[in-house]
Write a sequence for this structure.
């Protein structure tokens, strides 16, 4: 692909060129190392401004320390949504050529780490400013094409779609890089880390991960799978071509037919409710069978069945009415997320009854 001056770094007249790049893959696949190398390559070869937002570096330390204890899935979802809000504030500042404002509602430790992330990459000045509610941008951030790499597992398609929606909202470029690394390699690297994740967590993620599927999903068209850890010269050419294509072809924002959107939402909600009902029934049935096999006392079995059926009913009511007692969805709802939430609550109930027998 022939690269014009604006692609190589000189800022042309017109709106700022921006790309949101989702970097996904299993824990310890080498994403952070790859992101740093890509950042250096694009700065040197194309003169782009590149920012890497590693979710592990921005999420509150207290939450990450609880990872081995399976933190409440809704907590992770809320934190991810909060980080997207921070990112949107930065994007608005770049697009409008103004200072970045601090969200009125924010987690201070998380916002501080986000600001540090931007400062360390010369996207906002490192010197302190008087008004901490406003942050000026650096010349680097606004004078050349800007690529923001979002580094996280993004193992569910719905997680990545949220980033696509943000890119579509502001007519930005969008692409996905999937770092394809063998599960055994990830487990070995993880074990060598100072604070490794439980191996079970990586196994579960390996079973759940939904790889980008450009043939099925049009919005995932600009995606590339990269074999980890090495990136051959041919793959590097494909990667550069993908990023330039995403930069030159931002997503066109189309005014939505609100009536059709509401109809589609109702149809989707009905389908999801049916799927969730069937799946939760099977989970409750399987859990009761396992409890009987473990010789739980008959009285406790009866109480356990009552609690699990009550929990199932409350989850389904959440889906119907949006009461948000357990579920914290805003726009997209994924059955796999509902099941994950249900398993967490179910496991807490089951542990309670088994502890009574010991």
């Amino acid at each position: 692909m022939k690269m014009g001056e604006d692609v190589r770094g000189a800022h042309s007249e017109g709106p700022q060129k921006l790309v949101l790049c989702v970097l996904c893959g299993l824990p310890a696949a080498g994403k952070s190392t790859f992101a740093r190398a890509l950042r250096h390559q694009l700065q040197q070869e194309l003169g782009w401004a590149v920012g890497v937002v590693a979710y592990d570096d921005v999420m509150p330390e207290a939450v990450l320390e609880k990872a081995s204890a399976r933190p409440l899935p809704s907590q992770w979802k809320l934190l991810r949504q909060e980080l997207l809000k921070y990112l949107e504030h930065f994007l608005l500042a770049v697009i409008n050529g103004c200072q970045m404002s601090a969200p009125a509602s924010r987690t201070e430790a998380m916002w501080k780490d986000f600001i540090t992330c931007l400062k360390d990459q010369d996207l906002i000045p490192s010197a302190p400013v008087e008004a901490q509610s406003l942050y000026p941008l650096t010349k680097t951030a606004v004078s050349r094409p800007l690529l923001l790499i979002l580094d996280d597992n993004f193992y569910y398609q719905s997680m990545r779609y949220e980033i696509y929606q943000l890119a579509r909202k502001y007519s930005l470029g969008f692409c996905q890089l999937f770092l394809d690394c063998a599960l055994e390699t990830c487990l070995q690297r993880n074990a060598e880390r100072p604070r490794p994740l439980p191996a079970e967590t990586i196994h579960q993620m390996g079973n759940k991960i939904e790889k980008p599927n450009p043939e099925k999903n049009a919005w995932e068209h600009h995606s590339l799978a990269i074999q980890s850890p090495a990136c051959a010269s041919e793959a590097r050419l494909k990667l550069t071509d993908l990023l330039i294509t995403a930069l030159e072809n931002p997503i066109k924002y189309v005014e939505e037919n609100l009536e059709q959107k509401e109809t589609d939402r109702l149809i989707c909600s009905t389908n999801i409710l049916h799927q969730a009902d069937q799946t939760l029934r099977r989970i409750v049935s399987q859990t009761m069978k396992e409890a009987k096999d473990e010789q739980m006392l008959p009285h406790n079995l009866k109480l356990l069945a009552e609690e699990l059926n009550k929990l199932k009913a409350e989850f389904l009511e959440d889906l119907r009415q949006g009461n948000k007692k357990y579920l914290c969805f805003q726009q997209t709802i994924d059955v796999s997320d509902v099941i994950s939430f249900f398993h967490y609550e179910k496991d807490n109930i089951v542990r309670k009854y088994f502890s009574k027998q010991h």
In short: The longest helix spans residues 258-293. The beta strands are 18-24, 49-54, 100-101, 134-135, 146-151, 173-180, 223-227. DSSP finds 14 helices and seven strands in the chain. The two ends are 68 Å apart (CA to CA).
